[in-house]
Amino acid sequence: MPSELIQKDQQYIWHPFTPQKPQPEVIGIVKGQGSLLFDEEGKQYIDAISSWWVTLHGHGHPYIAEKLFQQALTLEQVIFAGFTHAPAVNLAERLIGILPGNFSKVFYSDNGSTATEVAIKMAIQYWKNRGEIESGKSKIENEIHPRKKILAFKNSYHGDTFGAMSVSDRGVFTLAFHDMLFEVIFIDTPTTENIGDMKAIIHAHGQEIACFIYEPLVQGAGGMKMTDPYLLNELLNTAKLNEIICIADEVMTGFGRTGRFFASEYLQKKPDIICLSKGLTGGTMALGVTACTDKIYSAFVTDNKLHTFFHGHSFTANPLACTAALASLDLLEKENCLENIQWICEQQAGFIDSLRNNEELYPKKIHNPRQIGTIAAFEISSGEDEYLNNISGTITRKCMDQGVYLRPLGNTVYIMPPYCITQNELEKVYTVLLSVLRG
Q1: What are the residues whose beta carbons fall under 8 Å from the beta carbon of 210, sequence distance 6 or more?
Q2: pLDDT of 144 higher than 80
Q3: Pick from 362, 393, 390: which is nearest to 378 by CA?
Q4: 227 is a domain residue
Q5: What contacts 125, CB < 8 A, 6 or more positions away?
Q6: What is the C-alpha to C-alpha distance for residues 11 and 8, in angstroms, rounded to an integer?
Q7: Structural domain count, the chain
Q8: Residues 14 and 85 in one domain
Q9: Tens digit of pLDDT for each residue in 7-27?
Q10: For 390-412, b where at least 16 C-beta lie within 10 A, e where not — what string?
């Protein structure tokens, strides 16, 4: 008999990314501590994917909790138009100091999808404002819009709002809305074989393209596909030669996931706009950031009120969320956290090497084992390489039975643990996963 919590969940809740027939089974989680989640019966599970990639320092971190408690007693929320507060200002200052590039302004929103939505709107309006400034025309009826097209990668995922969906791959996540999404120029991620063709496409459309949005080095929800930094840098260089605004979606890759603070640090060419969320608050609260260079910002600093960036959210720069982000940065910058990240990178690299040398599994049962930073991934050789592959549920269930939580993207299995995971816990993740694969 399901518990009262599960019964009420089934009665009232609609879970995300979850088929509703048959009614899916869920597990009631009552506590999180470090890398562990505890259900109603006291069984514990190692959270090997950081709860959708957000929980950097583990669950229930006392330092973040204490900072939130103190802030809640001081100021929990205030409108951010016409007011400001220390958590937002201090966070913006710290981010500007560590972001990979010459960023000058931070715009706050609510989550990763809205962070990319802001970036897209910011880039498009930049060209509109700039066109009007250069032409001397500023009335609505004389609208000047020299660049409207957007460049993006196939297989990308940038969120679930309409702008973010439009610049994402036309796949299962966007299928119901394809006829409502705006047109985008999609190109393949670069390889040594296609790099010339991809650069040629950019040159051909350069004067029409407002911006290029990309997930640096790792396409997350698209299946943890990884891109060579040198080749991506070549594309960014081509984009910049054509004055195309480069938008780095670092919602997943930011804050140490690739082994460096930001994936863009691997690249010589830096973005003009960067999007952050997920690990930004250590997974404690929802918060989005879109930072831009002074070049972008300057197009909005005019006497024309129509050049205002008309975008905002009720909870923009929420003091609690900003406080959680500051606390997470405090923890990230500690030596032991940086050492833990490096240790996880080494363990993940070793695990992937062991898979490549495992003749029982590779290439018979798995293929394309890969790793960057704290992220390890591979495909199970069963059915199609796609998100709807039913093997995902099987892997999740069998691993959960042994106390490990993994949630494959179709047949793409990945491990992305919190930075506080212990050696015993990570070894258990590997052991359980190997036993399930051998099956």
Answers
A1: 123, 124, 126, 127, 147, 148, 149, 150, 244, 245
A2: no
A3: 362
A4: yes
A5: 299, 300, 307, 309
A6: 5
A7: 2
A8: no
A9: 999 999 999 999 999 888 899
A10: ebbeebbebbbeebbbbbbbbbb
